[in-house]
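This week, look over our next protein:
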Amino acid sequence: MRKQFLQGLKRTASVGLTAVMLLSSGGTFLASGIGLTQVAAEEVTQDITEEADGTEDADGTEDAENAASIESTGNTEEIFDTTTEELPADGSLDQNPTDLVSSFITDAALLADVQAILGKGSSATYQDMVNYTGEVNLDQYSNVGAINDISKLAGFANASAFIFSKATGVTNIPNSVFAGMTRLKKVSLPDSVTTIENKAFQKCTGLSEIVLPAKLVTIGDNAFEACGLQKVDFSKCTALDEIGEYSFKRCSISSIEIPDTVPLTTVKAYAFDLCASLQSVYLPKSVKTIQICAFANCPKLQTFSVPTCCKIHWKAFCTSDSGNAESAVQNLDLKLRPENNGEFIIPVGQEKALPIYTGESFMVDTPASGNYTISNVSISDSSAVSRSSTTEIVASTKSSVKIPGVNLKGEKKASNVTVTVTLNMEFYTYNKTPNKTMTITPSVTYNVTVKDLSCTSIEADSDYYISKYAGDSSKVAEKSITITPVFKSGNETIIPNDVSWEYGNSKATITVAEDKLSARIQMPKSSAAAFEEIPITIKAGNQTKVVTVHVVTPITSLTFASKTINLPLVSGGSAGSITIAPSKVGYRDAAQPIKDRLYFESDNDKVIKVIDNKNDSCTVTALAEGTATITARSIAMSNITSVSLLNKVTAKITVTVTDSGTRVELRDSGTGKTIANTITFDASKGQTTQTYPYVFVNSSGTETSVSGNDLDITVANSAVATVTPNTSAKTIAIKSLKYGTTTVTIAPKGKSENAVSYTISVPSNIKTINSTASITGNVGTTQTVFKSVVNSFGVTSANATPAKIKEISGNTVKFTSTNTNVASIDSNGTVSLKAKGSATVKMSVYASASATTPLLEKSVNVTVKQPVTGVSIASENGSNTVNAGDTLQLTAKVSPSNASDTSVTWSSSSTGIAKVSTAGLVTGVATGTAVITAKANDGSNKSATFTVTVTKKVIKVTKISLSASTLLTKVGRTEKITATVTPTNADNRAVTWSSSAPTVASVDQSGNIIAKSVGNATITVKAKDDSGVTATCWVNVTDIKVTGITLSKTTLNIKTGATEQLTAKVQPTDATNSKVTWSSNKPTVAEVDQTGMITAKQEGSAVITVKAQDGSGKTATCQVNVTDIKVSGITLSASTLAMQTEDVKQLSVTNITPANATNKALKWESKNTWVATVDESGNVTAKNPGEATITVTAADNGGAQATCKVTVTERTAPVIKVTQIQLSQTRASLNEGKELQLTATVLPTEATNQSLTWSSSVEGVATVDSTGKVTAIKAGTTVITATAKDDSGISASCTVQVTVPTVKVTGITLNKTTASVVKGKTVALTATVTPDTATDKTIKWTTSNKNVATVSTDGVVTAKAAGTAIITATAADDSGVKATCKITVTNPVIKVTKVTLNKTTASVVKGKTLTLTATVTPTNATNKNVTWKSSNTKIATVDGNGKVTAVAAGTATITCTAKADKSKSATCKITVTNPAVKVTKLRMNKTSVDLLKGKTVQLKVTVTPSNATNKAVTWTSSNKRIATVTSNGLVKAVRTGTVTITARAKDGSGKKVTCKINVYADSVESYVARIYTKALGRDPEPAGLKYWVGEIKAGRKTAVQVAEMFFFAPEFTNKKLNNKEYVKVLYRTFMGREADQGGLNYWIDRLNKGESRKSLLKAFAGCPEFKAIVKSFGL
């Protein structure tokens, strides 16, 4: 229905749109009024008018009627709304619901993915697509890259998202494909998309955000109209050229930011109409045109930023809401961005128009009442740049209206001249009556540089001709000729000031103009003239041009042989051409060699091309059918006024060009006109196709026809372009492929002779400049920053040199630097780093060499660093030695002094010897040598080394602390006390231990004290470092007797043969002698060894007694009851036997339980001896037939027995003898008392009598019973034999070796574990071995130190020398058991004779300590312990180690007395003083001073705290050759440079403060340096300082002007300071102080209210404070 309705509307429109049928909501047709103005805006579409008309205007302009209606009504909404109805919600495809998707989706890859998404495979229908409400995610499928056509995605009318970013085969988003999808929330497009066609996303109200593809070129009309878009991301776009009409109408976008990387040129009409939320717009530098109403009805629009080259329609911001001011833009902030970032260069002495406009700027066709003016032009330095005149520029090629411009003249060399142009612009905001306008006053600021450009070329003709007779006749109009060369610097035409003319003698008069820019050659009368050739040399800069003036005999007559010639347009397949020359040329003096010359010209360059051969002939080439006249004239006589004479020296010939046949003509698709020979593509685009209709014309130029419309086409270079004909449409499509030029030859099929050639020019603009983001390098190096460029075809150049760029583009590139003193850049883009500082290098791309406005620019910031060339190190005190624990200050100096980074990193080759801080403070760690290195941090790898020797700082022991000062112990005990040495870092922390009574208590050198006997002893610990420090411990030794013994058991029931361990505990546990003796009153019943182990021997009772060995008589007993273990069970080898009479069989006992039964003897018995008997070995003998029971009974009367039932029958089988006996072992070894069970196997198993007899060959060695059990008796060898009883004589034997068991020593006990022996004395040690039954009780005695003590073989120890030795007793039986005794050998007692102290007087600060050291004489005195005492503990106290603590100011006497002899003592007088107060901070009255050479400045230091004990400081200069400093801080400037003055506290606190001194040669230098410091925050670079000083001294700039200009320097403006920071810098620079809060607030408020920074700068520069500062410098 909808399609039918639209078709009806189209038909209605075709007859004038006099009536329009509207479809009501009820589905009926309603008639509306006549005329479009009465039709509801939402019901009639722009599509209708376009389709009804059938064509667009030929020139592509808006429909004339519509435009007229807009202009007359002022409201496009009242005429028609361009919004097209959204497609119906049930899908936009003309399909039946039941249609299979495979019936209408022709893209195979898309079909497969859609079927997969719907989950129904080949059965998926159109209705399934409509019903689908989820995401359509094509990216999830591997074939997504094969999709080319997405038009059928329109069937997903209710989808929430379309994701196909990987569908790289998709290049366009088709018309209306997603239109009306109100549920659509997300779209992800592939970067391959180049076109978003008309209405593609119209009325997708749920779509709030979209990222546009990278290769997008065009956004079609109404593409996103009435979407819910709030954000559009243009950042990826690299090819976007235009935004179509109505494309974003009625969107909710608040901000549009299209970066400069996007090549957008056009924003078409109504593109952002009715974007009511739009507040800010930033359009890229490439944008050229903003069409009518592009931003209409955007009432919130506040900021609009465009380049100055942009053409803005004067109704771009209008509203269609009648009289409603709220719908109009108000107070628009129009930000105009100048090209080249405002950088503008003028040659000295020349005028140049500011590039405020490029072509048609700002205004289109008819500016609003002409109200476009320049309201103001402000020039910061009018002495360097002046405004020479007002220039009017034609606003448009279609209009005669002119708009103003600005011409600037460069008066003198200068840089950073600010020129600000303020515009007055009037835009219509409502264009109904009455008109409403908006006047805004944007400004554009340029940074102008005036340069003295050097001449690089001189342009002039090489030859000039004048008649020798020019001065004779009045018929000659001019008697002279003027040579006016053109001087250029690159592409700039300049006026050089060093032009010179050189020429020799001549008859002619040569006059050089006063400005030397031209010269006149004037001829005298012929009598004075001569035929000659006058060479003239023109010089400018290093350029030279030589021209020749020919004084000739003139031509007097000229004739062509024929008045007409015919020339075919083509000849032999190429353009027809011919050489023509006059048939007769007459000269006044024919004999003269210097003759006049001819020149040729055509009156119709479209028909023929004429080339002067410069030999009085020309070559004529046919270009088109037609007629042209060629005129030949005398050069020398060209300026005569006589018509008759002129006719004589002029000849004409008519050339008629004819066509040899039918040819092909290409036409312009818009105008229908024949296109020019050269077909040129748009340089800004890549591969594009241009289509041209073609016609066939005959020789007369009349269109004709050719059968089939077939063509012969030849392309000279198909790599540049391809040509494809469409004979049915009679068009050819020319597709550009790459940059270059080629020729296409087109002829009717088979008529190559009629071919027409067209030159196809495929230009290419540079679209991208690839470069590094920024560079940093050192002075003297070069770098390449611009790497390559990419043209519009996406081709990347090999590098960015002009030569390589020419290979891919016809553009011209230029390289510039903002500061060539810092960094210059040559014509190939190589950057040379010259001086420390910053600069910006720029690569500008121009369409051609003559273009003035760049197409593309890229800037790279360059930072040039001055590298460090050397480093030196010096110590503060001139020494290279430091004690361990002390410090040494090193300072590093880098050269040159202006290095970019003067910091260094300190390191030590051995931090274990010496450490160094980041400030160069060396701390000695340990003795040795370390190399300290200071390495420059700037990457130059420059460094210096300083060898530091660390010497040992001897640290004595000041105190020994013992873990106990009193020790109570018992005889025999070992106690350990520990000694702690103070300080912990004492060099020698070793101590010696000694005992005053080693027989009572001895001590080893580890502090182990052994209590030996009852009594007292003093243990002394002494430092070994000769400090004399000691500590003592009093030891009291007592003896402890046993008071009782407790046994683990008092009654014990045990079985015969068993053992049981008894333990005895002695009370008290610390009894001196806790050893006991064990005994049994009946060892035959139960015996006990000395460890308390009881062994039960036989049944009975015994008493075990344990007795203390210490003589206390204490005992304890245990009653032991021994009983036998009865047999409880017997197991026989068989429970029944079947025998024949005379059989003998062995019954054996296989098990007796328990295994540990005391008596395992058995008794055998037969209950019927008539039938069978049994012997004591269990051999059963069958006697007579019958039954008998064999019983075996335990002999221990326990009643245990076992039986076997024997059945005997009469023998029927023969008697079988034993043939073999096998024993379980044939050899065995047993210890005495051990047993071995041998078993015998009788063969054959059916032997009649299997009983055996067992015997031992030596029963004294081992016995054997009737069962084969062997018992070892004593050492020796015996043979055990088993013999068959059946008289067979068969036997078997086993050899048994009986050995005596070895008993190893398990313990050794010495009678002493420690002993103290006086040198020369002896002590006897005895060893007790356990067990007593040990086989070998031999003991070996050894000593650990024969020099201290020796030991004899029987354990007698002899003391040899003082010291300790360990005596060891070792068992000789290889058991490894041993015991030791520590022997301490002491010297005889030596008395104290004298006590001295290391100090007799000393001064100690209150709260501090001092340790006095006592020396006892002789050094080998036995008791060197001393006591300490203070005469006044309120002044000073002293502890037991001599450590004195200062308590209060005053004096006290410390007395040290020998303990061994109180008559021996020494004293020290202690004076206690109050503590010194250290310096915590130094502050200098100045931190930086600019000082003239020879001048002085007094520096002063304030010390904190004010009560510091020592306030003295030392003054040093880092470079005395630049400035010296006295001991009281008076600094004197010696020569120019920078130096650091340092003041250091003398009190050892390490505090210091510095002041930077800049020494300048004169007051001007000092003044300029101050401006650098205050305004830019840095020291001046030499070149800059020299320049500004020169400006002031030469009078070109005042001191105030120089200060002001610093605030316009890029270095300052690039800081982008906020208002607060800006005002603070003004205060520092012009008032010489920090801003007070009130003043700061005042000036910030003025800026915030709109006052310009320039105004504030002027105010500060004129303040009295700054005038005083300037005056102080003598300026």
